[in-house]
Amino acid sequence: MTASPPFALFIRGPKDAAFEISDQLGFESEMTALAVSLFEDGPDTMHVQALFETEAQAQTCLDGLKFPAEMESFITQLPDEDWVSKSQAGLPPVKAGRFWLYGSHDKDDIPADIPFPIEINAGLAFGTGHHGTTKGCLLIFDGLLTGGFDPKQVLDLGCGAGVLAIAAAKALKRDILATDIDQDAVDVTLQNAQVNDVEPYIQSHQADGFDSPVLNGRQFDLIFANILAGPLMGLALDIANALAPGGQVILSGILDEQAATVTDAFTKKGLKVSPQPSLSGWTSLLGQKP
Q1: In a domain, 272, yes or no
Q2: N or C: which end of the chain has fewer CB within 10 A?
């Protein structure tokens, strides 16, 4: 018996609100979506698409979400196609320096001069790398590598799908620690590590910020923290303390208009912070501990 086509919940509005909704769907919703995608559809707007088996599930999820009333939202049943795969196929590869993020549908089209291809397929809203925040992190990391930076201890804090941890494992060929507040993200990270043949290098654990035995007392030469501006500022002291002397932190999930405030928060904790060029309305920061 063939399963019925899924029901899609669409929500469209400002970038910061859409990004928050995708987090609610991925990390906070009790109703598991078949897939969640976040797309830029204009200079200042994005839309979120979540797929569900039934209309009732989609409606329950919509009723439980918190977002501004002026944002457009609707539920519709999709045509009889494999829409999880189709959503994935609609995501083009992303080039970020020497890194190439692609779905399995593009596996045969990886450029020969790309040393670090990373396969990430569409699924729960943990990030496919197609968002400007992830690309910004990879570009900064690529620049650090080009400059000769060779971190021995690396942490991907709030790892999501594990894109950054996998990138570090491929480039450095050493153990990488990846943590996330959500166990599903931990599981997805480990699955993606296996797909990308870096499973032996990736250790992934559930952790709420730095409140975990796997992080207590440890220091890192490089920390990826692609989260959101508010949580980043709340973790500024912990991140600064977790950096080894001379260590670098790549901060992202920051809207352009939030960059100065986040920079100030980390500067006050003793880090030298350098804002990087904006990507589609998002700014990534590079911080260094003296």
Answers
A1: yes
A2: N
